[in-house]
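Protein Record: Sequence and Backbone Structure Tokens
======================================================
Scope: a single protein chain, as residues and as a discrete description of its fold.
Tokens: labelled as protein backbone structure tokens, with as many entries as the chain has residues.
Position: the record begins directly beneath this header, with no further notes in between.
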Amino acid sequence: GDDVEVLVTAEGDTAANVTREQTTITEGSIDPMPAGDYVLIATGAPLQPVSVNAGGTLVVVQLPTRDGQVINLAAGRDLVLVSDLNVGSGMVNLSAVENLTLGGRITADTLTVTTGGDLTLDSSVNILNAAATGDGDITITQAGDLRIASLTVNGGDVTIIVAGDVVIDSK
């Protein structure tokens, strides 16, 4: 339905801790530059392109995708993708100043990821650009062949598990 249920746990008298006001939920658009933390739950037809640059933590719960789509997601703190992201022949760019957490597989022609922490990636991509700007580790599990166009680590370990051939470009 159209109902939203909220459970509140707070010490003391609930009436003193909760303010009840009228709210309306409408079909909205994606905010491309939220100043703080942002939770993205998009429904409906996929947009082209999708770009969100959150000032704080960005959590992507649901994002409809399509073949050939371009997705740019960046966070001033943490970036969390809860489910798979499949753009087929498209491009995905993911960037987190702190931690990048991926809950599903990323499928794209080209994937670029940058994180200040560890990166554990389950992918099905043709071309990968990956960077850990902090002292984090990078772990890549790839379905099929993989071309690593660039790989940058700042003292962390790199583990690559590929079900196919690997080509690492020299720069």
